[in-house]
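Quick one: structure for this chain?
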Amino acid sequence: MVCGELDSSNADFSGVAAGTDVSNRASSAVKACQSFSAITRNGIAASFVAEGDGYVVYAIANLNVVFVHVPNKIAKTGSDTAAFHKAIAQGLLSNGKIIHLVIGDTNQGSADFTMQALNTAFQTKAYANALTGGTITKIDNYGVTEQGTNAKGTQLYDVAVYRSDVVQLKGNVAYLSQSSGAVTVTDHCGLGVVVELKST
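Got it. Here's what it folds into:
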């Protein structure tokens, strides 16, 4: 499990994920909202791959997953956001890896922006938006009507983009919006997807 906007190395969170069978790796940042914490049960083949400002990459079950929280300073312009995704993609590609899944908060109002940036970076058309053409299962607390994952609940900033030529999306996409009535504790509850490598 990778938790965004959480620096588990901080003493305040020492009891969040503890135990002799649990590993906890924090990718700290100057701003806590750019931190990521990976919590893994020992014996599960999950490995750290890379990290940087606004992202962390882990490999599990032969999938390279990029968890993102694109910084607002980058997300202000399309060219900066494209460069952000391209740098991650090229960094992995130089080590013989591709991005199988990007998931998280893009701070972009356009749902297909991340998909387009990845297709440009890899010169392919294989990256697909999990929210396009699929069935979305809305999972919310009773009475919650927000339809977005930005702070105002108006736009879907969170995305799940997968490499459709080698990865298949299994089942429905789960979408959990936040509640302006303080039912939830974050403004980015986001998306849940199940993906796996296609059999050859």
